[in-house]
Amino acid sequence: DAGVIQSPRHEVTEMGQEVTLRCKPISGHNSLFWYRQTMMRGLELLIYFNNNVPIDDSGMPEDRFSAKMPNASFSTLKIQPSEPRDSAVYFCASSRGTAGTQYFGPGTRLLVL
Amino acid sequence: GQQLNQSPQSMFIQEGEDVSMNCTSSSIFNTWLWYKQEPGEGPVLLIALYKAGELTSNGRLTAQFGITRKDSFLNISASIPSDVGIYFCAGLKDNNNDMRFGAGTRLTVKP
Hints:
The complex is a heterodimer of chains A (113) and B (111).
Chain A: E1 5-7, E2 10-13, E3 19-24, E4 31-38, E5 42-50, E6 53-56, E7 65-71, E8 74-79, E9 88-95, E10 103-104, E11 108-112
Parallel strand pairs in A: 2-11
Antiparallel strand pairs in A: 1-3, 3-8, 4-5, 4-9, 5-6, 7-8, 9-10, 9-11
Chain B: E1 4-7, E2 10-14, E3 19-25, E4 31-37, E5 44-49, E6 55-58, E7 61-65, E8 71-76, E9 85-92, E10 99-101, E11 105-110
Parallel strand pairs in B: 2-11
Antiparallel strand pairs in B: 1-3, 3-8, 4-5, 4-9, 6-7, 7-8, 9-10, 9-11
């Protein structure tokens, strides 16, 4: 079975540019999570969706960050405009139901110059 | 932010040695999870624990859910070079969508 799929795997962009990260959850999972990982702060939950509806976005750093889940098999995390401090690895995870164990994608390594 | 205290931060061991790491919290969690992350990859679930006192094994890995529900440990027996990576504990609270991570234990195994 395919796991969580993320794209791109790597992204290098210049400050001020728009960045869009994509995630396809595991089929049948109805909860989706976006995390950011940095050396300084470890793994941080940014936002999660249940049945395509955003439930908690309190971890989103600021208004430059937005996330959507237009259907059960696709989600995006957008940063506009990007800044160097956004450089991190962004993970998407999915689970079956609100009590399910989360399975992570391979991550998108973002570098903002 | 993180509410889990994971230790040790790093370990350098010889192949064949046993490894022990743990996670503690001031809060109660209903589920404890242990993940392993290898360079360039996302965390991969190793063991999930759902009941206080539960002891679960997965090959050479053994993990326990503390009786107080505020801690968990992971043991790796007879380590091998492919055990290298960062091991994260994670705790889930009542709503099970609020997962908190430890800072990770970086394991290095010398052949």
